[in-house]
Write a structure and sequence with these properties.
Structural class: alpha/beta
Low-confidence stretches: none
Mean pLDDT: 97
Strand content: 15-25%
Bound molecules: acetyl coenzyme *A
Number of strands: 13
Radius of gyration: 19 Å
Order of helices and strands: EEHHEHEHEHEHEEEHEHEHHHEE
Length: 329
């Protein structure tokens, strides 16, 4: 009997505090008009000071567990995609394990920036189809507000906090993950392109590093924009051709939610009509590893994604990393 990996439950959690573009106008030299025109973002959610990535992830995971109608003890593996872990170690996945009481699981983090959730799905798919595991929790969660320089208008308007989670389970029905593709190119592992220079083994966080804001996100927005517009359609095509599915068959395209102009360009390049492209970047900004799973969960809850639908998820992130997943719900 063939084995497939199906998503049997999803959940997401966004912090309550809303930071609007008008709030940002009071913090940096920017305007609601500029941010909307260039990014499509109107507001984003910000976690409370004492809230870490695992706190948001636990809330999202609890919902996914409830909707999958499983006991947390059935979970055999927890994969948490994040670039904002609670601590260097223990892993955020271990904190999530404690929070949901999934005592029988192995737990680890995935560092693939904004592509992290689809990296997690790809791994879950492989582990399930090979027969090694039956039930895996995959989470994408981020608390960006601590790694953003709130005086840098080039970056602080773009990001938000949030988490999403999916229960992935073995099934014999031909549904779930039909094709998955992930890739990376370390030639772009350039801190000036996108990354945080200080805080790792290369550069400790010294008072000099803090003064120079080297412990905060650095980004060349224009280059990242161009790379995203090129890489996401290429990645999406790889999953489609693996599954021998044409773009016309897709019911919903869920691209990484970084910037409305990137999302629209990816849809246009793929030839997906606008009404089939899911967008929530206006409400949440870029939540990095969490965007596609928050969007998928929302699409399921609001009826945009229905059982039997063919859904294409695609993303890219620092590294560079990228990925695409073709899903039959
Ligand atoms: N408010 C007002 N002006 C601003 C702001 C702001 N928030 N930010 C930048 N500007 C200014 C710049 O300083 C620049 O001024 P100058 O011409 O006097 O130097 C001007 O606006 C134009 O800047 P550009 O960088 O050319 O603007 P662009 O149209 O490229 O938009 C943006 C910038 C929004 C960052 C865009 O390049 C972008 O979205 N890039 C992708 C970034 C992204 O997705 N990052 C996510 C990284 S993680 C991931 O998801 C992969």
């Amino acid at each position: 009997m063939a084995r497939y990996a199906a998503i049997t439950g999803t959940g997401s959690y966004l912090p309550e505090t809303v930071l609007t573009n008008f709030d940002l106008e009071k913090m940096v030299d920017t305007s609601d008009e500029w941010i909307r025109q260039r990014t499509g973002i109107a507001e984003r959610r910000i976690a409370e000071d004492d809230t870490a990535t695992s706190d948001l992830s636990v809330q999202a995971a609890r919902l996914a567990i409830k909707r999958a109608q499983i006991d947390p003890l059935e979970i055999e593996m927890i994969l948490v995609a994040t670039v904002t872990p609670d601590t260097f170690f223990p892993s955020t996945a271990c904190y999530v394990q404690k929070g949901i009481g999934a005592k029988n699981a192995a737990a680890m983090d995935i560092s693939a920036a904004c592509a992290g959730f689809l990296y997690g799905l790809d791994l879950a798919n492989g582990l399930i189809v090979s027969g090694q595991y039956d039930t895996i929790l995959v989470v994408g969660g981020e608390v960006f507000n601590n790694i953003v320089d709130w005086n840098d208008r080039n970056t602080c308007v773009l990001f938000g906090d949030g988490a999403g989670a999916a229960i992935v389970q073995a099934t014999e029905e031909p549904k779930g993950i039909l094709a998955s593709y992930i890739g990376s190119d370390g030639d772009y592992a350039d801190i000036d392109l996108l990354g945080i220079p200080a805080g790792g083994s290369r550069m400790p966080v010294t008072s000099e590093a803090i003064d120079q804001k080297l412990d905060k996100i650095q980004m060349n927005g224009r280059e990242v924009f161009k790379l995203g517009v090129r890489l996401m359609p290429e990645a999406a095509q790889r999953a489609l051709s693996k599954a021998n599915v044409s773009v016309e068959e897709i019911d919903l395209l869920i691209p990484h939610q970084a910037n409305l102009r990137i999302i629209e360009a990816v849809g246009d390049r793929l030839g997906v009509p606008r009404e089939k492209v899911y967008i929530n970047v206006d409400k949440y900004g870029n939540t990095s590893a969490a965007t596609v799973i928050i969007a998928l969960d929302e699409a399921i809850q609001d009826g945009r994604a229905k059982p039997g639908d063919l859904i294409l998820l695609v993303t890219f992130g620092a590294g560079l990393t990228w990925g695409s997943t073709l899903l039959r719900l």
